[in-house]
Amino acid sequence: MQNRLMDKISILGFAFSLPWLIFRGLILVILVAGLASCSSTGPLSSELLSEIKESDSTEFDMTLISIDESTLPAIIGHQRSGFETRFGKARWKPKSVIGVGDVISIVVWEPSEQGLFANSATGNKTELGPFQIEESGKIPVPYIGYITAKGRTIQELRWAVQSQLQGQAVNPQVVVSITENASSQVAVSGDVKSPGRFPISIRGDKLLDVVAKAGGASNPTGETQITIVRGSVRSTQLLKYVYENPQENVFVRADDQIFLNHDPYTFTAFGAVPKVGEYPIETGDVSLVEAISRIGGLNDNQANPEGLFVFRYEDSKLLAELGLLEDGYQLPKAPVIYRLNLRKGKSFFFGQSFEVRDKDIIYVANSFSSELRKFIGILTGVTGVARLGSSL
After folding, report:
1. Helices within 68-206 (DSSP H only)
2. What are 304-318's pLDDT values in tens digits?
3. pLDDT tens digit string along 18-57?
4. CA 60 to the chain's CA centroid
5. % of the chain beyond a pLDDT of 90
6. Which of 383, 379, 365, 307 is nearest to 32 (CA)?
7. Beta-ladder partners of 335
8. How far apart are the C-alpha atoms of 349 and 122, rounded to whole Å?
9. Topology adopted by domain 83-92+184-262
10. 387: part of which helix (H) or strand (E)?
11. What HEC string does 180-243 produce?
C-alpha cells in the first residue's frame, strides 16, 4: 500500500508540469486504482454480491437470501427452535417399573384387630419399609422373606406381596408406592455449583427444578447457555430466556443430559458502522433492527442502505424449503448470507421479524460515494505534498 502511494506521489509531482488535459487523465487512472486498492473498511455491496454469484463451485460456496415477502415466512418458521418445540410441554411422570436404587413403601390393611399386623397405635394399617432396591433386585418383607421387586410394576409387586401374605394375615389388602424414584434420574453438569445425577420426583420435575437441585448456575443467567440432550435430540437456549419464558421451562425425563456453559450470546458488527466490535445479546430474542440500534445505527457518511448483510450457518432444511439447496447436499448446516435492503420501507418491518442469533456476523457495506470521498481525501493530501515539493 505504501509503495503504491509513493508511486502515486511521484506521478502527481510529474503531472503538475503537464498540460491540464493530460493531468486530468492521470487523475482518472489514479482514482480507479485508488478505489481498487485503498479500501480498508470492507467491500462494496456490489462487489460482495458479485463474489457470491461468481464463486467457483470448488470454493467456499455461500447462499445469498434476500429478506423479503417471499422468504420471511420460511425464515421465521426456522428461527429459534425452543425447548417447548423440541421436547414438548406435557408432564412426564416417572416410570412405574421399579428399578435399582428406588425406594418403595408397602402398606398392609387388615379388617380385623386380631390380624397379623394389628397395632393399637396405627389401627388396621401397618407400613412396611421403606425399602431401597438393592443390586440383587430383592427386598426383605417381614413374614415373607426376600421378594423380587426389580423389573416389576407397582401393581405386580402389590399382587406378589398380597398373595404371599394370604394365610398369614386376615384378608390383607396391600398398597405399594414408590417414594423415591432413583432409577429415573437426570444428569446436570457444567457450570453449576453441585453437578451430579438427580432423581425425578414422583410429581415430575421441570428444567429449572433440576438446575436448582444442582445448586443453580455458577454465572449470571444472561451469560449462561443451557443445553438439553435427549437421545438424538439436542437443543440450546440462553438460561435467562428460560427464566423469562415459562413455556421454555419444560419437564425433564429420565436419562436427560443437562449441561450449563458460561458462553454469552454475542454478535459481531463491522463495515460502515459507528463502532466495529462484538456486542452481547443479553436476552434470548433480538431482532436485526434492534441489533443495528444497539451498535448506534449505520454510519451516515459511509453506509450503503442496500447492503446490510448477516453471515451465519443456517439449517439446510430452510434452504431446501426455499429451493436453494443443491442436489446431494448432506450437511445439516450451510453457509448463508442474508441481505436486507433498507431503501425499501417494508424492510424495517422485515428486520423486526428477523432474529439475530448467537455468533452472527452483521456487515454493513460501504457506499461508492464514501469510497470516492475517501480517495479524494488521500488525493488532497498527496497534491499538497506535490505542490510543496514543486515549490522547493
Report:
1. 72-77, 83-87, 154-165
2. 888 899 999 888 888
3. 443 443 344 334 334 443 444 445 556 665 566 555 544 4
4. 24
5. 26
6. 379
7. 313
8. 70
9. Outer membrane lipoprotein wza fold like (3.10.560)
10. helix 368-391
11. ECCCCEEEEEECECCCEEEECCCCCCEHHHHHHHCCCECCCHHHEEEEEEECCEEEEEEHHHHH
The grid coordinates listed for 1 are 500500500
SS3 of 46, please?
helix
For residue 311, list its beta bridge partners. Answer: 337, 361
Query: CA angle at residue 355 from 350 to 358, to 5 degrees?
Result: 150
SS (H, E, C) 336-366: EEEEECCCCCCHHHHHHHCEECCCEEEEEEE
Domain 45-79+285-366, CATH number (from 3.30.70.2470, 3.30.565.10, 3.10.105.10, 3.10.560.10): 3.10.560.10
46 within 8 A of 200, measured Cβ to Cβ = no
For cell 406378589, the residue is 160
* Separation between Cα atoms, residue 345 and residue 247, nearest integer Å: 34
